[in-house]
Amino acid sequence: MSGDVNVNVNVNVNVDGAVERAAAAAAGWRATPAEERARVLEGVGDALLKHAEELWPVAHDETHLGEVRLRGEIARTAAQFRLFAEVLRDGAYLDAVVDHPDPGATPPRPDVRRVNQPIGVVGVFSASNFPFAFSVGGGDTVSALAAGCAVVVKAHEGHPATSDLTASVIRRALPDPGLLGLVHGFEAGGELVRHPLVSAVGFTGSLAGGRAIQRIIDERPDPIPFYGELGSVNPVVVLPSADPAAVAEGFAASLTLGVGQFCTNPGLVFVPEDGGFDTAIGAAVARTAGGRMLTAKIREGYLRGVARLDGRVETGAVTALAEGDAGPAGDAVAPRVFTAGLETFADGLPELGEECFGPAAIVVRYRDPASLPAVLDRLPGSLTATVHATSPDEARDLVPSLRRLAGRLVWNGWPTGVAVCWAMHHGGPWPATTAPAYTSVGTASIRRWLTPVAYQDWPDELLPPELREDNPLGVPRRVDGRLVV
């Protein structure tokens, strides 16, 4: 009993110290000019590339992801820091607006000026499946730093040494190491969310984990924004004009990429009954291999999900279609694909629409594309929805359902692989995310860590530079309703 108390006390001191150092560092960081912050972010990107030879072997020891994948992920993480340097120099993220006074308006309008400001200290939960790009130096961290916030990261238990080393590399490139805190342990996550100096939380993980964080936030005296990415089945609709062989090979590759451990993994595929689509998919999946999953916890979750589907095989709700090879490792898992008719699948909702994180999917056979919208409308929200067809007209009636269902719509491609760019939206309706208006990938992710402040009839010399009449920083602004760049 006393041991548990000591652990909790140590965790509190650890979290308290990290958050307090972050809050102290944030004051100077938010006052740092955007150009200087941009140069710091570029320096972090350079540091990550410089230390790649040290970083990837440590990550491989903990994740089994291999040199090629991990080097690529380090490069992606560095590119994210450089991209957000561009965001800072662009200035549009500030959403600066100036409305001059108009005494003739009804009612009379005062001088009102609005600009975004950093929200405060951000708590970030690392993801398991990207030890760099969605972890200590991942998109949540870089977007929050770009916004002018300090960050405290709760390291993922699947790669603690990688987290420590990454944090060390990044801190040496920051003007104040307190801008990036790092805490470990299950209890630390709860303490981080509860801490009164934490102003927002970002999370990528399971639905259960997201619900637990939301409960803690709801119990705070001052509930704070929570941006969680929780789970997604990413439906794929294959229309009759698509090529069965191409669809089968593309699906099998996407399903098994990274042993299926991607939030954009295609977990549902709707195919015509005629045309041999299900047969081609089964043959392609049977030729695939699985492998070791990132953690024992993820592996156990995958096996439970597959066992749940096997149970539905016994009741006749689904049929086993194909199984790949698990591979030589004793703790490896095999890809599994099941199949069902559209009506039977619909009768099995919502259970059959639940995510099974890993290389598992259900192939749903339909007779008429006109029957698809009614079923698509019953699916849980997803990060992506995909259509395979040769004619846009063939998919026209599906568009309203797909727009309601997912945050990114893919045409004749596969959802795995998320481009880090200005236009990307990596979000979606519940349970894909807790806030479908926001993205966790791409430049718009900075909006999560900003809050607007309006200044009414404020003296020019006391205004933020972005709102002063002469616009000394030259940021894009909307002035009296017109965009001025």
TrEMBL record:
One of its GO terms (molecular function) is oxidoreductase activity, acting on the aldehyde or oxo group of donors, NAD or NADP as acceptor. Residues 13-421 form the Aldehyde dehydrogenase domain. Gene3D superfamilies: Aldehyde Dehydrogenase, Chain A, domain 1, Aldehyde Dehydrogenase, Chain A, domain 2. It comes from the Bacteria. InterPro entries: Ald_DH/histidinol_DH, Ald_DH_C, Ald_DH_N, Aldehyde_DH_dom, Aldehyde_DH_Superfamily, ALDH_KGSADH. Transmembrane segments: none annotated. Keywords: Oxidoreductase. This is Aldehyde dehydrogenase (NADP(+)). It comes from Microbispora oryzae.
